[in-house]
């Protein structure tokens, strides 16, 4: 998938994911709801049935946060690793996701946790240059690869588990 | 490939690429020359024989710039697309590469040219979260995928050609 993506409405996608089979009420917003790089990304995420592992430097896009929250509500096990310096920036969605009960861990280093990948159901890797921000989605030249090759998925899953354990709050130091 | 990478000396790799077969003189620097994520990345780049297409948001790592310059001197056709706001930052290697005669093009937008990929000989795609900066290589959590699957390579080659043409200086506006 290549970005920038035209702005688009993803209400129909979210409604269908929340209550499959129920016809979605038309959204009153003026945005088109066509097929865009963003809608394709959201569709991939919403295909999660069991787990969603997120490793994201910067996460401020409200539309993607709603998709993640919906999966969490639907019983998908969501884990999120992020960067300690970027998670507190204005517009960050991390607080909202934590508030919703999603497990979040972050680094304690001066170096950045600069990954931008997601793993759906331990079988689909979504990775690239794209930070999950509206600016990146709508204004930047970006790429996102969707890979189901087991070799790549396993390498990124292993990296996720390493980071998840390394950033376990029981390891935090306060001195 | 996952980063951060231990700091390492790539002089032996560069010397071998510059004059294949000639035994490299030992480098007096104190860095180890072992197998690291950085040395693997450099090895992939130095495998180029005909072309190297670079699409890089930020490029300030002198070691990677030396590898690119060496390929250019060896007759490999190097093309580089970068971001107009980041190419002038302190430590950027873009000026040096232009000075060496390498073709560079950049955007004219407020949105970022945020890709970080390289295509070797139109057959190997190197892409991920890694900006080509020493900070990212040595301090950040980063990933780089090396993909030879024709479908992915073609998609990124097409994106490169689109951007290369869009950023042609004959299209620049000065008003």
TrEMBL record, chains A, B:
Keyword Membrane included in the entry's annotation: yes
GO terms of biological process kind: cell differentiation; lipid catabolic process; meiotic cell cycle; piRNA processing; spermatogenesis
PROSITE patterns reported for this sequence: PLD
Reactions accelerated catalytically: a cardiolipin + H2O = a 1,2-diacyl-sn-glycero-3-phospho-(1'-sn-glycerol) + a 1,2-diacyl-sn-glycero-3-phosphate + H(+)
Pfam entry (one): PLDc_2
InterPro entries xref list: PLD-like_dom, PLD_domain, PLipase_D/transphosphatidylase
Chief localization: mitochondrion
Molecular-function GO term, any one: RNA endonuclease activity producing 5'-phosphomonoesters, hydrolytic mechanism
Subcellular location(s) of the protein: Mitochondrion outer membrane
Domain of life of the native organism: Eukaryota
Membrane topology field: Single-pass membrane protein
This protein's UniProt keywords: Differentiation, Endonuclease, Hydrolase, Lipid degradation, Lipid metabolism, Meiosis, Membrane, Metal-binding, Mitochondrion, Mitochondrion outer membrane, Nuclease, Spermatogenesis, Transmembrane, Transmembrane helix
Domain PLD phosphodiesterase: residue ranges: 109-136
Hydrolase recorded as keyword: yes
Cited CDD domains: PLDc_vPLD6_like
Any one of the GO CC terms: mitochondrial outer membrane
Record-linked PANTHER family: CARDIOLIPIN HYDROLASE (PTHR43856), MITOCHONDRIAL CARDIOLIPIN HYDROLASE (PTHR43856:SF1)
Similarity annotation: Belongs to the phospholipase D family. MitoPLD/Zucchini subfamily.
Name under which the protein is recorded: Mitochondrial cardiolipin hydrolase
Native species: Origma solitaria
Designated gene of the protein: Pld6
């Amino acid at each position: 998938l290549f970005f920038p993506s035209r702005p688009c409405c993803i209400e129909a996608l979210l409604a269908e994911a929340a209550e499959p089979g129920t016809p979605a009420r038309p959204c009153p917003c003026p945005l088109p709801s066509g097929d865009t790089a963003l809608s394709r990304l959201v569709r991939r995420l919403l295909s999660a049935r069991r787990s969603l592992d997120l490793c994201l430097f910067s996460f401020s896009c409200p539309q993607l946060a709603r998709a993640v929250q919906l999966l969490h509500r639907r019983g998908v096990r969501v884990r999120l690793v992020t960067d300690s310096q970027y998670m507190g920036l204005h517009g960050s969605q991390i607080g909202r996701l934590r508030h919703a009960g999603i497990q979040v861990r972050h680094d304690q280093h001066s170096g950045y946790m600069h990954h931008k990948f997601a793993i759906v159901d331990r079988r689909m890797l979504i990775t690239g240059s794209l930070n999950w921000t509206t600016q990146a989605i709508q204004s930047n030249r970006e790429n996102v690869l969707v890979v189901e090759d087991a070799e790549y998925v396993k390498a990124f899953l292993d990296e996720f588990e390493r980071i998840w354990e390394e950033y376990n709050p029981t390891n935090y130091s306060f001195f």
